[in-house]
Amino acid sequence: MDEWLQACLGRGQTFSDFDVGGQLTEIDLANALAVRLGRAIAWRGEAMTVAGAPEAAKLIRPDYRTKWLVPDRA
After folding, report:
1. 1, 13, 35, 56: which could join 50 in a potential S-S bond, CB 3.0 to 4.6 Å?
2. Backbone Cα Rg of the chain
3. For residues 11 and 48, what is the distance between their CA atoms, to the nearest angstrom?
4. How many other CB atoms are found less than 10 A from the CB of residue 27?
5. Residue 49, strand partner residues
6. How far apart are CA 59 and CA 66, in angstroms?
7. DSSP string, 5-69
8. In tens digits, what is the pLDDT along the chain, a chain of 74 residues?
9. Residues 28, 30, 31, 35: is their CA dihedral positive or negative?
């Protein structure tokens, strides 16, 4: 954690670049999505969709209950 905090303060870099970490996280989450769907998927990263699987949309961007959301304070 200290390595990450030092990088945030501009004192060096993290062992794993944030760009690499973001890509690895996306790969991992796409794999978890395939497991939840029970089949292989064709992930479209730019669009954040799965080709030929409209049922995946609810798992990618779930509908949250608005009753529990805090309103924006402008």
Report:
1. 56
2. 17
3. 34
4. 12
5. 44
6. 17
7. HHHHTTSS--SS-HHHHHHHHHHHHHHHHHHHHTS---EETTTTEETT-GGGHHHHSPPPPGGGS
8. 898 899 889 998 888 777 888 889 999 999 999 999 999 999 998 999 999 999 999 999 988 777 776 766 65
9. positive
